[in-house]
Amino acid sequence: MEKKIVIVGAVAAGPKAACRLKRLQPDWDITLVDQDSLISYGGCGIPYYVSGDVSDESELRATSFHVVRDEKFFQEAKGIKVQTRTRAISIDRQRKVVQVERLESGQEEELPYDKLILATGAKPFALPIPGVELDGVFTIANLHKAIEIRKRIAQGKVSNAVVIGGGAIGIEMAEALKDLWGVETSLVELEPQLLPCIVDWPFAAMLKNHLQENGVQVFTGESATEILANAEGKVCGVKTGMRTLEADLVIVAVGVRPRSELAREAGLSVAPWGGIRVNQRLQTSDPDIYAAGDCVASTSVVTGRETYAPLGSLANREGRALADNLAGIPTRFKGVCGSFIMKAFERCIATTGISYEAALAEGYDADYALTSPPDRAHFFPNQSVVILQLVFDRRTRRVLGVQGFGMMNDSLSARIDTAAGLIAAGATIEDFSDVEMAYAPPFSSAIDSINAVAYVAENLCDGRMRQLDLDRFLAWMEDMSSQPDWLALDIRHPLEAEPYVERYGREKWLAVQYEQMRERYQEIPEGKTCIILCNAGTRSYEVQVFLDHLGKSDSMVLGGGLNVVSRLEPDWYIK
Ligand SMILES: Cc1cc2nc3c(=O)[nH]c(=O)nc-3n(C[C@H](O)[C@H](O)[C@H](O)COP(=O)(O)OP(=O)(O)OC[C@H]3O[C@@H](n4cnc5c(N)ncnc54)[C@H](O)[C@@H]3O)c2cc1C
Which residues are catalytic? Predict the structure, then answer.
């Protein structure tokens, strides 16, 4: 029997649901409604359009066979009706009609439905400071804003830019401005680290260091308090608690919130923070209304709790699962891992599951293994180090999250995607040790980095390895008198270790090369706690086992070794 389907929102989740549904139920009458004139675009491509990597905005709206996805395309190619510049203003659930307003004419109309889909997405969080309404201040709310930003830059109107917000969108926009256009760009983040609540601080700190190396000034732990105007009323700067930054363009990217007013006003169940509540079939509290994408509250497959994951990948998968359910194919969307990846200049940062900090906050008996293996066979040309961390629960040995920082290539994404699949299935450390990865030297190592980080986690969990947290090590390096009994045991090549011995003296920094440990271990003084240091942490573990065997069981390994420290570049680090 033919059904009338109305879908509100036509960017990612809406069109995905519409197209899948039309394929499954060709006779159904499907109408997509959107208040915007530009629809079905790859919002994730916006930073690459602004940078110029993507030459024209229409590429973000085109299919892989180069046809622009506009109203005509949906009608002719897909048999789906599209009404743009049409805003849904209310839902009458009793009568099953959506009240819409035609934005060009102001006319109101009713659209009857058998099933309604809400794919209303998210809206940028409004920063409550003076000056946000000034000419030259933008949020990345839609493609129009991106077009306007790029136009201004291309016209040579932008020399200095300030990005407020150190989340993924802010960082990607900062790179876009600096990298290809050479705009002097500063980024201000209120929290003490970039990507707050997404990655742990060492990963955020590595990213910050890399942005700064590439000329983006990054100010973390600093709040933007006012956006300043010049005499013509145009933006000219941003004031923070600590400085004033010049700007002829300001991008405000301080997070997004679910756009759920329509749902809330219709009496649907909505989380206090705004996410529309849906069951695993993407059905809201009204069985005739479904929802998907950035407007919904998701469930974390790690914690089982409600979470917010506004991601294009999820919007598309949810849209498809929703359509299946409507068409009579029972499909469960079980929840989200929160898999995330982004490029920043020549680096890549990625995560899946939850961070160590989040795991502690959730009450897990959390610990982590931190490693820095090569991203392909160590003898292969152009191999590079990838920093990989696995977060686990000591009590159940379940893996809770994996995060990484490496070169801008496919190495990290392959590991994160593997981890996401395992974590969603509730995998333990041993499952990660066992997972079979494809190997050839140009792609990976014979002992894959995802297996290797799990081996370290096993050793930690079983007490075969004792590690020193990175933050405790860095604190000691700032003030060695805080732990007078600690001694750095540097087992690297003398060329790497000796400059430190010269600086700190043998009482604080002892250099005994790994290969000579078995003949020189007696040089290690009694009564000292050795922090064993090498580049990756692997040799350090071996030396720890050797010292334990000799009854010297008071040593600690710096997980991930100096490879991690070198990416943070603290003041004391000798390049
Ligand atoms: C700069 C940027 C970079 C991103 N990068 C990535 C990335 O790399 N990876 C990733 O996974 N995700 C990324 N995202 C997120 C991704 O774009 C979103 O998750 C995705 O667009 C969500 O799709 P959606 O259909 O749920 O909602 P939206 O894209 O927000 O679309 C919702 C649509 O509904 C319309 N609408 C809302 N209310 C009404 C109403 N009452 N009546 C009519 N129309 C209405 C809106 O105008 C909008 O057009 C990025 C986002 C941005 C902005």
Answer: 44
Ligand 1 contact, 313 CB (< 6 A): yes
- Measured by CA distance, the residue closest to atom 33 of ligand 1 is 9
Rounded to two decimals, the pTM is 0.95
- The answer to whether the CB of 255 is under 6 A from ligand 1 is no
Q: How far, in Å, from the CA of 224 to the mean position of ligand 1?
A: 26
Cα(17) to ligand 1 centroid in Å equals 14
Q: Is the CB of 166 under 6 A from ligand 1?
A: no
Domains of the chain are: 4-122+257-326 (3.50.50.60), 137-254 (3.50.50.60), 340-461 (3.50.50.60), 467-568 (3.40.250.10)
Helix (H, G, I), strand (E, B) or coil at 258: strand
Give 56-86 as a 3 state SS string: CHHHHHECCCCCECCHHHHHHHHCCEEECCE
pLDDT of residue 1: 72
Q: What does the DSSP assignment read for 525-568?
A: PTT-EEEEE-SSSHHHHHHHHHHHHTT----EEETTHHHHHHHH
367 lines ligand 1 (CB under 6 A): no
The alpha-helical segments, DSSP class H, found in 425-537 are 429-434, 449-461, 470-478, 494-504, 517-520
* Whole-angstrom distance, CA of residue 113 vs CA of residue 290: 12
pLDDT band for 141, please (50, 70, 90 cuts).
confident
- Tell me the per-residue pLDDT of 451-481, one tens digit each, with 9 for 90 and over: 999 999 999 999 999 999 999 999 999 999 9
